[in-house]
Amino acid sequence: MNLYREQGVVLRTWKLGEADRIVVLLTQGEGKVRAVAKGVRKTKSRFGGRLEPFSHVDLSLYRGRELDIVTQAEVITPFRALREDYDRVVAGTAMLEAVDQVAQEREAAIRLYLLLVRALRALDGGPRDPSVVLDAFLLKLMALEGYRPALAECAGCGARGQPRCFSIARGGGLCERCRTGQESTLDAATMPLLAALLGDDLDTTATAEPAPASRREAGALVKGYVEYHLDRRLRAYPLVAR
Ligand SMILES: [Zn+2]
């Protein structure tokens, strides 16, 4: 079975030689795939602009030793509106970057793939604030990767009730008994906002317009939380307008 078919989203690309391009994709069945698209940079390429970041494509690939080879690519969703808006492109780029960091090669990633496609659709649909959709996406991604933050109970003792302070290292909110005193007390609206970003579906989040103070606080916590637990910097994240 050297030829296979997959649906995927292009995460990043780079040039190879004169005319070819290497494409990194997140696919449903094969996880992260690195493939070469031959002749893609020629004007008469049969792939045209179909293999650019954000492209949601149906692919035929030939399994190679180091790199697979793309033999066919058809667009499933063009995400045209997303591509034409700077704020949405930057928020989407931060999503692609995070997915690139967590996805494993040759390991099915159906839930991750579906989450990414839903998030790109939410960005494409014209959200009130792309950065809010990005934060919701990142919290859902963390939950998927096994780092679901405790937001409705204490991360230390499990006591129910929404905590007012947050510890990135301990994985979420802390009650008054478990807090060490180093954690700052959050704006009253921040924990409810984080809980909504994690729990609501992305279409609901796309219509949300949270208050600026809790919005900023939540954003800083999301960034810190993701970077700490993935042990990676989110390079595109600070470029997102908020
Ligand atoms: Zn506690």
The level-1 CATH class of the largest domain: Mainly Alpha
- How does CATH name the architecture of the largest domain? Up-down Bundle
The span between the termini is 47 Å
Structural class: alpha+beta
Describe the structure.
- With 242 residues, the chain is of the alpha+beta class.
- It folds into two domains: 3-78, Nucleic acid-binding proteins (OB fold (Dihydrolipoamide Acetyltransferase, E2P)); 81-239, Recombination protein O, C-terminal domain (de novo design (two linked rop proteins)), CATH 1.20.1440.120.
- Helix content is 35%, strand content 21%.
- The protein has a five-stranded mixed beta barrel. Strands 6-7 form a two-stranded antiparallel ribbon.
- α4 (130-144) runs parallel beside α7 (212-230).
- The chain is elongated, with a radius of gyration of 20 Å.
- Zinc ion (ZN) binds at residues 154, 156-157, 159, 174-175, 177-178.
Comma- or semicolon-separated keywords:
242 residues, alpha+beta, OB fold (Dihydrolipoamide Acetyltransferase, E2P), de novo design (two linked rop proteins), 2 domains, 5-stranded mixed barrel, two-stranded antiparallel ribbon, 7 helices, 7 strands, elongated, binds zinc ion
Task: Present the secondary structure layout.
Elements: E1 3-16, E2 20-27, E3 31-37, E4 56-62, E5 68-77, H1 80-83, H2 86-102, H3 110-124, H4 130-144, E6 165-167, E7 172-174, H5 190-199, H6 202-206, H7 212-230
Parallel strand pairs: 3-5
Antiparallel strand pairs: 1-2, 1-4, 2-3, 4-5, 6-7
Helix pairs in contact: 2-3, 2-4, 3-4, 4-5, 4-7, 5-7
